[in-house]
Amino acid sequence: MDQRDALRDRRILVVEDNYLVAQVLTEILEYVGAVVLGPVGDLDEALALAKDGGLKIDCAVLDVDLHGRPSYPIADALTERGFHFVFTTGYDASGLDKKYRDYPRCSKPFEERTILAALAQCVRGECPAHEPQ
After folding, report:
1. Distance between CA 72 and CA 96 in Å, rounded?
2. pTM more than 0.70
3. CA distance 123 to 70
4. Beta carbons of 105 and 86 less than 8 angstroms apart
5. Which of 10, 65, 67, 106 has its CA 20 to 30 A from that of 18?
6. What's the CATH code, domain 3-123?
């Protein structure tokens, strides 16, 4: 199964505060047939979506830093609901809170194939386990 097949019709929450990055990511995901939820650039709005029990999410892309606030509460909410995600960040792993260093991460600027491969792994259940703490 290739990335297009893995992501086709999958509902992917995009949490990104940079408008241009969010637009490019949305275009990439829509091109491969994914259904984009968002993009959302506000921590509180994204957290509400992550906690919304009626919202089906297959996977998420989380910018680590949302206007100076870490997206870790969103990661926690998604993990509690059993949803997988990929962090995007300009930081290396040492710049992340220790609790989140083993989660899938794509460094910015990311290449299209890199983010698609990471998301495809997550929707196939091949990314590191996201176990509730």
Report:
1. 10
2. yes
3. 24
4. yes
5. 10
6. 3.40.50.2300
